[in-house]
Amino acid sequence: MRQLRRAATGRPARGRPHERVIPKGFAVNHAAAGVLVGVFPTRTARMSPAQRRLTRAAPGPAEGFTSATATVRGADLHVRQRVDSNAAAPIWVLLHGLAVSHRYLMPTAAALPGSVFVPDLPGFGLSGTPARVLTTEQHAEVVAAWMDAVGLAGAHVLGNSFGCQIAVELAIRRPDLVASLTLVGPTVDPAAPTAFAQIRRWAHDLLSEDPHQLPMILTDFRDAGPRRVLRTLGYAVGHHIERRIPLVEAPILILRGQYDPIAPADWTAHATSLARRGSTGDLPGAAHNAVTTTGALVAELAAAFALTLTAGHGRSIAHASQRAVEVPLDERRMPVEHTTSAAEARHVAEQFLHDWNMTDRTDDVLLVTTELIQNLTQHTDDGGELHLRLRDDAILIEVTDTNPQPPHVRPLSPAVPGGRGLLLVAATARRWGSRPAGWAGRTGKVVWAEIARRLPR
């Protein structure tokens, strides 16, 4: 597209192979990078010279990768790709983060087995520049349309940072396209839910990154432009990935760099617990851009995860820290939007009961779920979460919302219609109540009800 057109017309290309490309107004050279290496912590991971050359090779061929172009929904996409002729080889789609491009994903891409496709999202890298800035969901729709156009289905999708949010949306909207998700440093941590908080964490992360990334990062930032970067950041913080992960059917592997301040350990552990089928691992020595500085290890763990799924070897893998996290079999979660209907919540609850092979008290569970979800949508301005837990003698239903006011049963005249939801809950549940809780950075509560099971004698 922009750079490719310049190459075709003989004008200087911004991304010619084996050249260090930097924005106007910046003067970064090898000597300066050497000084920075002495300033930054030596414990953090570094790219090799060969990897640095690979990041700036497009649009020329390098290590089996070539550049392809496609026009999808009016957007001109540049795709860096390596195609394996073996029909049984795995297919990988890599999605980059905010303000960057395919370039920083290349160390991971080169180490993955099979066919690998690394698109530049619209407005980033070597792709064309649409007039409007796309939302997270619109990026996912473009990726899905491109995958349809080139015949990619059942791919293993790997994302970093904002690319994780796009990957999650893709898996929700088009589960047929996604066999598994590998999320490296997923954003946005609900503990830092604003653009300012994310920028502050990003600035902190730079202290632990390989300074040799700087020319690449500046080139990518110039290609995107500050307006697109800031608008996209706004869409990212408004996306609430923590509410979307529970809707993903595909298995999820979540990785984080050891020194990543953007995706801290408590957030990635929580994100893993939200997944229906989740595993997690650490990447020693890496910061947020682990896909660049520890690409070989990221590829190894992602490929091993994909292999266990193909071989049917369970739901978790061994990884660098030798610590696996699985989704508990006796818990299920569902994010609830303000517009979520009670029928949707009932359908999900019924599916949960089916997964547990449990049919006793189904009607009671669905009735209580209906009433609690209706209370959430009628009395709060934001979403929340439905959480079901299977216990030996009961089913615990919990609904989290952003209204701190505790619920109470109101005495009503028989002539007054409606308003008896909590009476139904109290009459159906063995016990019920509420407790203070936070949700999406706001003070709220959890309303819970316990449905006794009919156990065999």
UniProtKB/TrEMBL annotation:
Keywords: Hydrolase, Kinase, Serine/threonine-protein kinase, Transferase
Record carries keyword Flavoprotein: no
CDD domains, per the entry: HATPase_RsbW-like
GO terms assigned for molecular function: hydrolase activity; protein serine/threonine kinase activity
Occurrences of domain Histidine kinase/HSP90-like ATPase (ranges): 340-430
Domain spans labelled AB hydrolase-1: 93-201
InterPro entries given in the database record: AB_hydrolase_1, AB_hydrolase_fold, Anti-sigma-factor_SerPK, HATPase_C_sf, HATPase_dom
Protein name: Alpha/beta fold hydrolase
SUPFAM superfamilies: alpha/beta-Hydrolases (SSF53474)
Pfam families in alphabetical order: Abhydrolase_1, HATPase_c_2
Organism domain of life: Bacteria
